[in-house]
Every structure is written in C-alpha cells, then in structure tokens.
UniProtKB/TrEMBL annotation:
Catalytic-site annotation from UniProt: 356
Region (Disordered): 1-47
Binding site for substrate: 111-113, 143, 329, 360, 374-375
Single biological process term from Gene Ontology: purine nucleobase catabolic process
CDD domains hit by this protein: DHOase_IIa (cd01317)
Organism of origin: Corynebacterium provencense
Gene: pyrC
Residues at which Zn(2+) 2 binds: 203, 230, 283
Family membership noted in the UniProt record: Belongs to the metallo-dependent hydrolases superfamily. DHOase family. Class I DHOase subfamily.
Enzyme nomenclature, EC number: 3.5.2.3
An example Gene Ontology CC term for this record: cytoplasm
Function: Catalyzes the reversible cyclization of carbamoyl aspartate to dihydroorotate.
Name of the protein in its database record: Dihydroorotase
Domain Dihydroorotase catalytic intervals: 98-286
C-alpha cells in the first residue's frame, strides 16, 4: 500500500540568504530563522471525536475485499475483514457495504467569501459544502474584504472554521498588502500566528511586478511557505472575458490569450529556479502551460501546479448561449487544452485538482456575459466529476485510472505540497481518521438550489453524476452522513 505514496517532504532544505543586493527589501525580516513547518498546528478548537466509529464493509481505495475500519478517539485503530470487528456497545456504526474509502479530500483553492461577502458564502456554508463534497481541509483565498493580509484576519478565518468544525479551513495570506501589488505582507507573522498560514497568494490577481515576485519567492524560501500564483499578465488581458480564439471572435467577446498565462508561468518557474522558493501555479488552463511545467519538472525546479475540474471538462463552446455561469478566470479554453491537461494530470506533470470554488450571487451571474463575475461553484460536484472523467466513464482513448489516482490528485498531493499534517495520509492503522466514503451506486443530478453553498452558480445544473460522497469524517467526527451535513450539536 505504501509504495504508491511518494516520499513526503520531511522539511525544507537549508538555503543561503539571497538578499545581498541594495534594493530596498519591502518586508521586515521577521522570524527569518524559523520555518512554518517547525511549528505545530495550534488553535485546534476541538479534540478528536471521542469514542468509537465503525465503517462497515468499505473497499479501501476501491480495491480488494470489503473491510471494517474501526476509529477510536479520532485515529484508525483497526482494519480487518468485514464482519470480524466487534466495536464498543455505544460505537457509531455506519453500514457502507461496497462503498469506496478514500483519505479525506484536500482543496488548495477555494473562495469562502468571508469576511466581506457573507451574502454569497460564509465559512460555515462553505464548510458544509466541503463536508458534502468529501473534503476535510480547504484553503480559502485572501481576496476577501478586508483582505487576509494580517495575522488578525487569518486567525479569524481559521477560528471560524474551527468553530464550525465541518472541515479545516486554512486561510491563504495575500502576497501583497491589500492585494495592491506594491508591498509584500509579513509572511513570517502570519506563518507564526495561530492560523499558521502556509500558503500566500494574491489569487484573483497576478503578482505582475517581477521584482516584487522575486522578493516574495526569496522570502517564502526562508520560511518554507508556498507562493501560489494566479498567472495572468494584466496588460494582455485588459477587458478580456473569454478565451482568445474562434468562439470569442464569433461572439464578439474580448479575448484572453494563452500567452498571458504562459508568460507568467515561465517567469515564475525561472524565479523559483534562481531564488530558492517553492511556487505553485493556480488553475493551469493551457497546453503551453503543461509544456512549461514539463520543462520545469525536467530541470528540477520546485514548481507545482493544480488544475480545476472545469478546465479539464469544459471548453469555450459553452459560451454560445452567453450564460454567465460559464464565465471564469482563466477562461474555458479549447479541446486541445483540455486533452493536454488531462494527460498531464495522469502523468503527474500537473500535481493535483483544486476546485477554485467561487460563489457568486445570482445578480452577479444572470446578466450580460461580459458583466458577469468570473467563477463557479466546485466543492460539492468535484469528486463525482473527477470520478466520472478518470475512473468510471473515461472517454475513449484515455486510459481509465483507479481510485488511488483520485486519492493522489485530490488528497495526497495537495497535502504534500502544503506540508499539511494529518491529511492526505495512507488508509492505515495509526493514521488520523480524516476520511471520505464514495457510494458508487448512487447517481444524482446536480442542482444549484440543492447545494449546501449559499450561492447556486454551478455550470453543471441538471447534469447527472455517477457517484456521490456518502460520508465524510474529520478527526473521527462524522461531518457528512448519508450525503447530508452533520452540524455540531
Ligand atoms: Zn485565480
């Protein structure tokens, strides 16, 4: 079972300081000697759920014979043939015969909109959507109001997630103050805070200034945190609303060219190569980005990348109806891009799937296409969509993958990239019970109105999906039971 799991990063390699030049360093050198990965995850509000939980008859990674998995005080304590374990009399027993057991999913990229736009999503409603989607940890982006650019906002987000206790909600800190792209935030202070921020991003915007990005990469390397880049050269995308191509030309929509993404991917790969930090590419969307990532991998550059379900599944042909639900940033591209992204996820050039869950109110979506806000919901549909595309209904010509592939790209790799303890771990005795169970016999139809999210802007309205998350477990506590959220009593 262990041979399929790539070696975990035990820590970060020591790197020389590289700020020997005379340019003014815009960020105070706070706690340069420490590393985020050395601190324990503080501020867990709840202990692991006490008592016993028995998952009966599950297939680990969808393989082999049905097994019983016994959880005690939040930890897996036994995995035996189905029917052979006798739990405590007061144990919570879930009959899950033949369902697929996976590690709890980890989403590196969501927007939970709190603070500031609680009318479209809150940390509580987003956590409910996450639990229903099989997620046990999510990372919520910094483009809130106020921006998550200080320890106070980061700790507020983390604590609200802990109070809800449906999913670990990790705040992403912004790279620049107020997302203004001018001055770095204090990564060290946020990393050392109770929220223990381990990823920084101006997502929604690109860190367009190359000198500022260079400083961010240097500073992040010192601290062992990750810089996640929304790759969009802003001058090349002014006023752009759709992929630059035949469809946009025909529909009269301003085009967003591939080069606007790829030029930043190339720049950031070279910065990561030369300045000692780890850079992560958000929502890769083009064939050229895949080629650049493959090159960077070959050079040993510490560059990782995610892809969204919608960039794997949908193309700009969906824009024919001018439906604002298909407006997203980066935009839906062409078939050659979706095919390149799928192959890259299978061969490991792309590391993982992230949803870019982006709730919007109906007034922000049901309007002219070029006035619609970019973004789509993702948390509750992603597992089913990825299972359909890669496992249960792989299209002709694409080698079908197994459930271990889903575990890798939706749980293990994101947890590794973020050096996140307790999540994305093997299904084994002694591991924390952060788990997700998939019912492969339960077809369902996605409707925005039925989702736990406050918003309903799904591009999959009315789409029938082949599998459903039945159960999610966070540190031994059942957060989703039979497809429904289990709130704290
Ligand atoms: Zn983005």
């Amino acid at each position: 079972m262990s041979s399929r799991h790539p070696a975990r990063h035990a820590g970060h390699s020591q790197r020389p300081q590289t700020n020997g030049d005379t340019t003014r360093r815009t960020t105070p050198a706070v706690r340069q000697e420490s590393n985020v990965n050395d601190y324990p995850q503080t501020g867990l509000l709840h202990d692991p759920a006490p008592g016993e939980l028995l998952l009966r008859g599950v297939l680990l990674y969808g393989e082999g014979e049905p097994a019983d998995v016994l959880v005690r005080d939040g930890v897996i304590v036994a995995i035996e043939d189905a029917g052979s374990l006798t739990p405590d009399t007061d144990a919570d027993i879930l009959g899950l015969d033949g369902q697929v057991l996976l590690p709890g999913l980890v989403d590196m990229h969501v927007h939970l909109r709190e603070p500031g736009r609680e009318d479209t999503e809150t940390i509580a409603s987003g956590s409910a959507a996450a639990a229903r989607g099989g997620f046990t940890a999510v990372f919520t982006m910094a483009n809130t109001d106020p921006v998550t650019d200080s320890p106070a906002v980061a700790e507020m987000v983390w604590m609200k997630g802990q109070q809800t206790n449906l999913c670990d909600v990790h705040p992403v800190g912004s790279v620049t103050r107020g997302l203004q792209g001018r001055e770095l935030t204090e990564f060290g202070m946020m990393a050392a805070s109770g929220a223990k921020v381990r990823m920084f991003s101006d997502d929604g915007r690109c860190v367009a200034d190359p000198q500022l990005m260079r400083r961010a990469v240097e500073y992040s390397g010192d601290l062992g945190v990750l810089i996640a880049e929304h790759c969009e050269e802003p001058r090349l995308t002014e006023g752009a609303v759709a992929h630059e191509g035949e469809t946009a030309a025909r529909l009269g929509l301003r085009g967003w060219p591939r080069v606007a993404e790829e030029s930043v991917v190339a720049r950031d790969a070279l910065l990561a190569r030369d300045y000692g930090g780890r850079v992560h590419i958000c929502h890769a969307s083009t064939e050229g980005t895949v080629e650049l990532l493959r090159w960077a991998r070959g050079q040993g550059i510490p560059l990782t990348a995610e892809v969204t379900p919608h960039h794997l599944l949908l193309t700009d042909e969906k824009l024919e109806t001018y439906d604002g639900n298909y407006r997203v940033n980066p935009p839906l591209r062409e078939t050659r891009d979706t095919l390149a992204l799928r192959a890259a996820l299978i061969d490991g050039t792309l590391d993982c799937v992230a949803t870019d869950h982006a709730p919007h109110g109906s007034e922000e979506k049901c309007c002219e296409f070029d006035r619609a806000r970019p973004g789509m919901l993702g948390l509750e549909t992603s597992l089913a969509l990825m299972a359909e595309l890669f496992v249960t209904d792989a299209p002709e010509g694409q080698r079908p993958q197994d459930w271990r592939f889903i575990a890798r790209v939706m749980s293990e790799r994101p947890a590794e990239i973020l050096r996140l303890p307790g999540h994305g771990r093997p299904l084994a005795v002694g591991e924390p019970a952060n788990l997700c169970v998939v019912d492969t016999t339960r077809r369902w139809t996605a409707h925005g109105a039925d989702l736990a999210s406050k918003a309903s802007n799904t591009p999959y309205e009315g789409t029938e999906l082949p599998v459903k998350v039945s159960t999610t477990v966070l540190r031994g506590r059942v957060t989703c039971r039979d497809g429904e959220v289990v709130e704290l009593p």
